[in-house]
Amino acid sequence: MTVIIATTVSETKRGNRIWLEGRKLARGCFTPETRYNVSFNKGTLTLTVATEGSQ
Fold first, then answer.
1. Residues 4/27, Cβ–Cβ less than 8 Å
2. Which pTM was predicted?
3. Strand partners for 40
4. Which letter does DSSP use for residue 48 in this model?
5. 1 pLDDT exceeds 70?
C-alpha cells in the first residue's frame, strides 16, 4: 500500500484529531464527494477509497 499522507494526531478535549486537506488528498483520489472506508490497526489509521464506503 502506498502512503499518501503521513501526519500526526492531536489530542483535544473531545478526542484525537487529524487534519487533512487540499492537494495531499486530491493526490490520493480523495475529492469532496469521495466515499471511503476507515480501518485502524496497530496504531495506524487507514482511509481507503471505496465506491460503497462507510464514510
1. yes
2. 0.59
3. 45
4. E
5. no
